[in-house]
Each structure stands twice: as structure tokens, then as C-alpha cells.
Amino acid sequence: MKAIRRFTVRPVLPAPLRPLSDLARNLRWSWHTETRDLFQSVDPEGWAASGNDPVRLLGSVSPGRLAELAEDRRFLRRLTAVAGDLGDYVGGDRWYQEHSAELPAAVAYFSPEFGITAALPQYSGGLGILAGDHLKAASDLGVPLIGVGLLYRHGYFRQTLSRDGWQQEHYPVLDPNELPLALLKEPDGTPTQVSLALPGGRSLHARVWLAQVGRVPLLMLDSDVEENDLGERGVTDRLYGGGSEHRLLQEMLLGIGGVRAVRTYCRLTGHPEPEVFHTNEGHAGFLGLERIAELCAEGLDFDPALEAVRAGTVFTTHTPVPAGIDRFDRELVAHHFGPAAELPTIEVGRILQLGMETYPGGEPNLFNMAVMGLRLGQRANGVSLLHGNVSREMFSGLWPGFDPDEVPITSVTNGVHAPTWVAPEVFRLGARQIGVQRTEDAMTVGGSDRWDAVAEIPDQDIWELRRNLREQLVAEVRERLRASWRQRGAGTAELGWIDGVLDPDVLTIGFARRVPSYKRLTLMLRDRDRLMDLLLHPERPIQIVVAGKAHPADDGGKRLVQELVRFADDPRVRHRIVFLPDYGMAMAQKLYPGCDIWLNNPLRPLEACGTSGMKAALNGCLNLSVLDGWWDEWFQPDFGWAIPTADGTGTDPDHRDDVEAAALYDLLEQRVTPRFYERGQDGLPDRWIEMVRQTLTLLGPKVLAGRMVREYVERLYTPAAHAHRAMTPDAARELAGWKTRVRSAWHGVTVDHVETTTATPTAELGSTLSLRVRVGLGELGPDDVEVQAVSGRVDSQDRIADAATVPLKPVGGPDTEGRWLYEGPLALDRTGPYGYTVRILPAHRLLASGAELGLVAVPSEGVGEGAGVLLR
């Protein structure tokens, strides 16, 4: 018979064991080895059965065992030490506290998904894992962050395979009471709720669950509450599920409801109010609208409120393709806002203006969440240097008149949380060299350019470590493969061959990620005969472990999975290549350390960052990748290999795949496998070991989430906090009024005449020209603008590259025609074809960038004296 309701009956912990409950409820255990070891010792079999989840473990351990532990002095000493360590970690000063009070009092970090631990499955892929690593690194650094997300009752789907290799999805129901969460409650003990107004007089209510991620609270909104109708209860059912309206309601709850949850949390706990709001991808963009509404309720008009909100908002884009951005029909958005719905005090037309694609090439009837994010955030970034370039190009329509490299989108290259992803064996090897505390600091705070202590580790130790990790992976793969084949309907008698799958002494390649077409899961199958030769080579074989989920609605991705699975099912190669279903954090933590090579072959430049290769590198795994994302930025031959690309715009996609697959096979045959298998005088692959050493020494410090979060603090959060503090109500009114005046008067701004002190087409390197420029400012004055000389190398079309800008100064007042004269020096500091021009930008002390308004005036044809100067 089937139960109509389920719940967990928990044992009451004896008083000496009460700290176990606090340890289980703080997710620091997910990256703190001593805490995990303590829970494992409570009940080793129960620990394994619980999926290494302390909350589930404590719900299943017998009262007899608890009574035994309550009398075990050795266990109680360990418990006291671990609980004390958590207390010091949560309450003590860390990196952030050692800096001045100029840093933000608090930062709110919004993301649609968070990958903290497999025990809290609220992630689908890289965006969520990155968000989880961001929270963990912020905790390690002491950054006063508040995370905000949704609690999905089905999480993301679980993946199995049919007998013929087709992906099948399963959506297990998650009970929040069985997760490491606590309800946020009012002082009288009732659960806190936030509500959104829906059309037709309905409401969407949500409770707020709290996950404690070290020092960082993560607020998760859950619409599955009795006060909601059935439709509203399902708003937070699945991550990235449902149709357009479903997604819109999820994103309204995340953004608008999330701000309300943050305000409530700060009221209840005394946590400082955030000065900075960080929107991780466009899904949370509506948070800016709620903050505008808050300021309007305090007496500001819409435009000043918009300026005040922009000042303290950071927007991070993670997608390099327009198709990856959420876009909604304008009528659907309009239906959910205004007098009869949410944010009734804000005119719907103003809301729509923030997200409409009102630029060349845009879709005028679509509301674009990333466009809204950029318009509501004064600071924006991509997630690698290359992705910053791609983002500036992709969104350049929002800043007409500016070259893409001047579009105000910077980049902070992603990092990964080393304590989560580094195998304990790797950590212990580091601790043996420099001690536990220094190793911990190196992996969390970072700050050094090199991990020089790695040079002292003997070759033999590195090679034994790598083989040990490979051996662990082989055991893990066999166990998971056996379970997968049972799910596919195979009987035990059919599965004897699995005992011979993979070999701990064979070069092992890992490939695991989501399966959109651009990541090219099946590129390795392009020439199956060559791949078979590599897998079955008599002296230098390779073996490959593959994992990945296709989106439930992506049949193309599912076909790619099936194609790979069918190849891996071939009895000739199934001992050398495997596909493991249900890729997630628990599998990944075994996969990265156990591989020798991490393979990544996306279509360049469609990988925004691609952090899986970073996690592999931290375990001494070498990267074999297309130069995309972070690898384009940090690749060196010491760390691995770059797969050549054929990414010209006219390249036929099939031909491109053929060329790049052939390059991959060539690298494996001619460079990768010989280096792994060749032995030096001491019987070790010394050249391979040296690459592992260089990867750890030079790449390790770069790929840390601690480095990433410090960059966010220094380059984005702190300037945003300063801008937020400067944007008092009066300053916001001033800036909004000034922008309105400048926009309406800009048509009268002109560059009328440009002349220099030389009329010859050549000049000497190191000499200085004197520029004189006559400009018309119309109704504006010199305080409203900056007149700039822009100079640099020019190409055959006279386009300036690597431009340098120099402000020019006004000389005297306006002439009889109202024109102003500006002068300034132009230093000729490089040889070759050289050119200059002049432009006028709006200027105000509260602007973050001269490009912020998207306004620029440049000379018309014939105003200057030619195309510039040629240096010799």
C-alpha cells in the first residue's frame, strides 16, 4: 500500500551530541574534511547509505548507537574540536574583516540555481555550481554575502538510460524537512512569507527556507504552500521547467520576492542591509524593479529611483549566445505588472522600456532579461576575458556610436572552490609540504601567483598520487556502470564484463558537462576507426569516461547522448569508453581527480568560461581543450594542449567538425599518449609529471574561487558600494535631471573644426602635436561634456585600434557664434600608420563610464585635415 504522507521520525540527540545537529545544518561540512570524517565515524554504513548527507544520517542512526557515542570520550573530544572550529570559522575575522570600512556593509547575490552539495540538488550545470562556489568562497573570505534563490521541489531531473541508450528523466519530490534547511520564522514562531500580486486579484505566496553555507545565509523561496492555489503552488516545481508564463513567474518570485525576503531576513536577524545587489545572469533582473518601487514609496520619482538602483547593482552575464537569454513577449510582461498586478505604482510602459530590444537587430516585441539587467546595473561583467569581448560585441547595440571594446562590460574570470573540488589525497600532499593551515589558506584566500612548494614534492609521490586517484575512479566507474546497466534492464549474469572496465594504468580522459549541441559531445566519434585505434592501441591505449545531461526538451541533445552510449556499448571498446548517467556533484568530485586529461571541445567562442577544466587542473589533471573561455586566457604548453580550431565565419559546420576532430586525434596520437607512456631513467614519465607540477604551481592559484570573489569585491562590489553611498536622494534627482537635459539637448552637440600644429603627413616618434578643436555645445556647457582626442594605430580603412584618449581643455568662453575652443597635446608615442579623431561625451561626476548614456558626437566628413598622421 502507498502512504498518503511521509515524514522523517528523528531520534532525540543526547545532550553531549547536540553539536552534531548544528554541524549538520551548516553546509560547511560539504567542503570541510574533518566534519565529514566525524559524521562518517558515527555510522560508516549509514553514511554511505545517506549519500554522505549528515541530516539524513542523523535521521536514521539508531538510539543505541547514539547512546554509545554519548559515552565515547574520544568521539566527544573530536566533536568538541570540530564544533569549536566551526565556531571560530563563523565568528572570527577573515580576509574581508582585515580591510577598511570602505568595503560594502553587505552584498545580496541572486541566482536561479545554487550547487552547494549533492545533498541539496538545486542546480543543473555550470551556472549553479559557479554560484555555489561563489557563496563558499565568500564565506571563506568573510564577505558579508546573502544568497537568494528558489527552492525547487523536484530540483533538476535525475537521468537514467533506456536499454537502447535514450535519456529518461525522473523528478523525485524533495521534502525540505529532510534537507539541510530551516524555515525562516517570525518572532512569534510563524513561518515568514513573501507575496506577489497576480492579475485577477490573486496572489503568489512563498515561504523562505534558510541554508547556512558557512558564514553565508542562502534564502530559498518556496511556493508550495497551502495558501496558494494549485497553479501557484507549482511555480517553484522544477528548475528551468514549464512554459513562458511559468518561467516569468519564477523570475518575478526570484527577483521581486527575493528582495522582500532579504529585507525580512535583515529585519529578523539584524544582518546589515545590502549596499550592493549582484544579479547572476538575467533571471533575477526583476530585483531592480522592486528596489525602484521601494524608493518610489519613499518619495523619489521613477528616474531618480532608477539612478539610485543602478549605482549599487552589478550584473553578470554568463551566456555568449542570444539564444541562451530568457526573452518574454511584451504583452505577457505587461499583463503581470501595473495597477491590477505587481508593482502597481510603476507605470507599465517604464517597466517595458527597461527590457525591450530597442536597438538595430533587436526584436521590438520581446522583453529581454539580460538587456534589463544591463540597463538596471551600472556595472556589468562577463566571466572570462574572451567572454567579455563576446559580450561587448553581443550587447553593443545598447551603446550606439561606441566601438565594442568601449562598451562598459568588463570581465571577471570564474574560479572554482578548491576545498570542494580538490581530492583529500591532493590536499594531504600539500599539507605534508607546508602544513594544513597554509594549504587551507592557499586554496581559499589565495593571493599568490605561484604555489612554489609544489616544486619540492618528489616525482615518485606525484606519480603515486595520480595512480591512486585513477584507481579510485576505476572502482567508482565500475560501481556506477553496474547500477546503470541494471536500470537498463540487464541481469547480473550479463554484467561480468564490467569487472574489466577501465585499467588504473591506462591514460584516462574525462569529458563531462551539459549536452547542448555547441559543446559537441560526439566530436570524438567523428572518425570512429581512429578513435578505436586510440582506445585499443597495443602499447599506448587511452580510456574515456563521459557523462552529461541533455535538457529534457532538447531531443537533439538526447540523440547525441544516445549516439555516444551506443558506441560505448560496443563489446569491442566497452572496457575502454563508458558513459555514466546522472552526472552531478557527487560523481564530479570523483571524476575530476581521477582523470589524466580533461577534454573540452566546444564551438569557439560559445563557451563563456567552462570551469570543469579548472577543477580537474587543481587535482593535477592536464587540459586538452579548444582555446575558449578560461583556457583561451591562461593556456600554456606547460599545462596541456590547445586543439586548433577552424572558426572562420564562412566555414561549413561539418567541415569544421572534421578538421577539429582530426586535430584532436593528431594531438592524442602524436603528443599526448607518447608523453604519458614514455619513461625516464627512473622508470617514471618525468615529462608528464613535470606538466602536472607546472599545472599545480602556476595554474592552481589562478583558478580559485577565492581569487574570483576578491576580484568581485575589489573591482565591482566596492565601487558599486561607493556609488550607492554617493547616490543620496538629492544626488539621484540631480543625475536623473541632468541625463534628461543632456539627452534632449544632444542633437545640438557638434565637432565643427579640428586642426593641428603640423600639416605634413609624417612626424617624428616622440614629438607632440597641439590640437585645436572648435565645438558646438548647443544648450549644454563645458561642465556637461568631455572633449577627447582619440588616437592610435590605424588600419587600411583608417579605423583606430588600441585607442588612447586624452581630454582636451576649453580655452576661454564661447565665441560670437556660441562655439567653444578646446586645446590639448597629442603625444606621438608609437611608430607606423597612426591616426586620431576627436569626440564629445557626456560627463558627470556620478557616471561610472563616459559611454553610460550611449551618446557620442564625432566629426562629420571634411571637418578634419585628413586621415591622420603617418609616423616614421
UniProtKB/TrEMBL annotation:
<protein>
    <recommendedName>
        <fullName>glycogen phosphorylase</fullName>
        <ecNumber>2.4.1.1</ecNumber>
    </recommendedName>
</protein>
<feature type="modified residue" description="N6-(pyridoxal phosphate)lysine">
    <location>
        <position position="615"/>
    </location>
</feature>
<keyword id="KW-0328">Glycosyltransferase</keyword>
<comment type="function">
    <text>Phosphorylase is an important allosteric enzyme in carbohydrate metabolism. Enzymes from different sources differ in their regulatory mechanisms and in their natural substrates. However, all known phosphorylases share catalytic and structural properties.</text>
</comment>
<keyword id="KW-0663">Pyridoxal phosphate</keyword>
<keyword id="KW-0021">Allosteric enzyme</keyword>
<feature type="domain" description="DUF3417">
    <location>
        <begin position="13"/>
        <end position="120"/>
    </location>
</feature>
<keyword id="KW-0119">Carbohydrate metabolism</keyword>
<dbReference type="Pfam" id="PF00343">
    <property type="entry name" value="Phosphorylase"/>
</dbReference>
<dbReference type="InterPro" id="IPR011834">
    <property type="entry name" value="Agluc_phsphrylas"/>
</dbReference>
<dbReference type="GO" id="GO:0005975">
    <property type="term" value="P:carbohydrate metabolic process"/>
</dbReference>
<dbReference type="InterPro" id="IPR035090">
    <property type="entry name" value="Pyridoxal_P_attach_site"/>
</dbReference>
<comment type="similarity">
    <text>Belongs to the glycogen phosphorylase family.</text>
</comment>
<dbReference type="Pfam" id="PF11897">
    <property type="entry name" value="DUF3417"/>
</dbReference>
<dbReference type="InterPro" id="IPR024517">
    <property type="entry name" value="Glycogen_phosphorylase_DUF3417"/>
</dbReference>
<dbReference type="GO" id="GO:0030170">
    <property type="term" value="F:pyridoxal phosphate binding"/>
</dbReference>
<dbReference type="InterPro" id="IPR000811">
    <property type="entry name" value="Glyco_trans_35"/>
</dbReference>
<dbReference type="InterPro" id="IPR052182">
    <property type="entry name" value="Glycogen/Maltodextrin_Phosph"/>
</dbReference>
<dbReference type="GO" id="GO:0008184">
    <property type="term" value="F:glycogen phosphorylase activity"/>
</dbReference>
<keyword id="KW-0808">Transferase</keyword>
